[in-house]
Amino acid sequence: MTTTEEVEPISDAADVVQMTDLSTDGNQFLTFTLQDEEFGIEILRVQEIKGLSRITPIPNMPFHIRGVMNLRGTVVPIIDLRAKFAMPEVDYNQFTVIIVVTIGDKVIGLVVDAVSDVLNVAEENIESAPDLGGQADTTFMTGIAKSGDRLITLLNMDDLIGAETVSI
To answer: Coiled-coil region(s) at which residues (predicted)?
Structure first.
């Protein structure tokens, strides 16, 4: 096992962000980008990161559920987080990956633009999800991580995807 300072970026993207504010007493998050915005999910939820592979569409699914893929014999639903967040659609490219996560007892694939790095964030560098008034739903956020000049939206996978997976 390597220390967090030795973790190599998973993506070859030129703009891979350097790991900053490393600590050993914080929480670890896998960070990724969607439309130049950074998001983070708890590293313990991540089962693996796969390159984009064949996704079999399923009729009558919501737009953000792209279909299913065969992951070593297990049929895994694939959710496009760009579509889930109503961001503009883009063509998948060489940096597009599927982050395979576990939510409860389900395995779900998340299509993201690119994976950035694994980041340790000390508890004092995590702010609560901002209160943006009644019009904005922030229940999918666990908070905002501060890392140098970066602000990373931390996702609550149970609230973002959890209820949906019950019906898939």
So the answer is: none
The token pair that represents 162 in the structure block:
């959890």
Helices (H), 46-134: 81-84
Percent of the chain with pLDDT over 70: 77
Interatomic CA distance for residues 119 and 19, integer angstroms: 6
Helix (H) or strand (E) holding 120: strand 114-121
From CA 42, how far away is CA 91, in angstroms rounded? 27
A 10 A CB-CB count for 69 gives 19
Rounded to whole angstroms, the Cα distance separating 102 from 95 reads 22
Q: Which residues does 100 contact at the CB level (< 8 Å), separation at least 6?
A: 46, 47, 48, 49, 50, 71, 76, 107, 108, 109, 110
CA dihedral 110→113→116→119, nearest 10 degrees, is: -40
Residue-wise pLDDT for 16-71, tens only, equals: 334 444 445 558 999 999 999 999 999 999 999 999 989 999 999 999 999 999 99
Residue of 135 and 152 predicted with greater confidence: 152
- Computed over every residue of the chain, the mean pLDDT equals 82
